[in-house]
Amino acid sequence: MDEFKDFYDNTPEENSSGFSLGETPLEEEVVAEKPKKKKGKKLLTVFIILLIVGAYIFGNMIGRGLINFEGKRVPVKEEESVLNINRADLTQPGLTTVEIAKKAGPSVVGVVCKSLNATGLFGQAYESQSSGSGIILTKDGYIVTNNHVIEGANSIVVVLNTGSEYEATLVGTDAKTEVAVLKIKPEEELTVAEIGDSSVLEVGEKAVAIGNPLGMEFFGTVTEGIISAVNRTVTVDGKQINVIQTDASINSGNSGGALINRYGQVVGINTAKISSDMAEGMGFAIPFGDAQPIIDELIKNGYVTGRPMIGVSLRDINEYVSYYYDWPVGTQVIGVSPGSGAEEAGLKQGDIITGIEGTKIKTADELNKKRDEYKAGDIVDLEVYKYATGKTVHIKVRLSEDKPQ
Predict the structure, then answer these.
(1) Residue from 155, 152, 74 nearest 111 by CA
(2) Which one, of 231, 230, 225, lies nearest residue 207 by Cα?
(3) What's the number of domains the chain is made of?
(4) Is residue 74 situated within a structural domain?
(5) CA–CA distance from 333 to each of 149, 308, 347 (Å)?
(6) Pick from 259, 276, 298: which residue ends a domain?
(7) Strands (DSSP E) along 153-215, which ranges?
(8) What is the pLDDT of residues 216-274, one digit of tens each?
């Protein structure tokens, strides 16, 4: 519209005869008026066309939610999570343990897994069964549990607190963060867990754990304690994860169950405990703030996208092995993934990685921790002792995306 405003606001220009446009001599009046009228029709036609196009674009933008009826641009919303994080009013008093159990208990399920195993001289197959817990995330049947609960399972059954059983599909699992997502097709209304904000937990506040310790015989067991610590780092099955520590009783079978705050909101996924004659009341849960993006990725893609990998399997060379074989301390390549950046760069079995991007490393854990500072597609410089030549060289490796096999 501003273009048309400028057109009508401009002062008339003068032509070569000394007259301004629209001020022609009398004898030329008829001749001059004809083209002027024709030009006016063209402008009117153009104006109408632009008006129609503008109205269509405006209406389309309103329909798509890009602008509102006042013509103001609406901020683009970030992709929403399947989880609805509720931030409770921390000034309000909490619920009783009975109220928490009634509110959150029906959202905790049993997860029963069956696996086929081979044993004996002739590899006879036998079926084993294990169980854990899970948390209902959505009305249409998405459920979160731990990776180690379902790892290696040939079939998975979800048991509701109503006693109903449903065959479950594994949507995706992430061994690195110990999170797995299942899906059932419910024939009844599910009680969805209310998710709380794990980032505002304070040491000493009330915590309730609900799950199925020692199997389905003790389905829906409720234990109470406090938040003992936040932002702990523990090693579970060789993987370091960030956890909430609690003294609410957590036992085998509680894995995948709910850790709940004083408002009846799930703030963690129970994962592990320290089993020792020298320790008691040390249980751990994955904060839901950490689990949320993993859950969203698993539901959307079936795995966590964008994670970098070098493309090698490794074993560490400690000081003793280094001295015995006259090798440098580092982590040795024992296998190379076909089609990976490592294969393209020429890494071979027996090579020893001793550094990455100028940082010396002694273990695979140190290498992976430094690798995780980059993303898939980045090129990193590795310091490598070549087994074939006995020389240390620098190799550029393009990081591949770590996808499940």
Answers:
(1) 155
(2) 225
(3) 3
(4) no
(5) 30, 17, 8
(6) 298
(7) 155-159, 165-167, 169-174, 179-183, 195-196, 206-211
(8) 999 999 999 999 999 999 888 778 899 999 999 998 899 999 999 999 999 999 999 88
